[in-house]
Design goal:
It holds the Pfam family DUF7976. The chain has one domain. The chain is 69% helix and 0% strand. The protein is built from three helices and no strands. The N and C termini lie far apart (42 Å).
Length: 71
């Protein structure tokens, strides 16, 4: 995969995350966080791999299911 294709995927995913955040709902914000985290795989400035992103996303969902950080 080319760097250009990676940059394009990252940008598209982050645009989708930004659009979701405009929905102003908890569910949209949760999904936006997940989509943004996936975009980090395509960001050369981020030192993550798919497993790291998966574990982070799982953590986001677990915290969400428990009522959030601010319980």
């Amino acid at each position: 995969m080319t760097d250009s294709a990676d940059h394009e995927k990252r940008d598209v995913l982050r645009d989708v995350a930004d659009d979701l955040r405009e929905q102003d709902s908890e569910e949209a914000e949760r999904i936006a966080a997940l989509v943004h985290r996936v975009s980090d795989i395509y960001d050369e400035a981020e030192d993550v791999d798919a497993q790291h992103v998966y574990l982070n996303m799982r953590n986001i969902l677990q915290i969400s299911e428990q009522g959030g950080i601010e319980r």
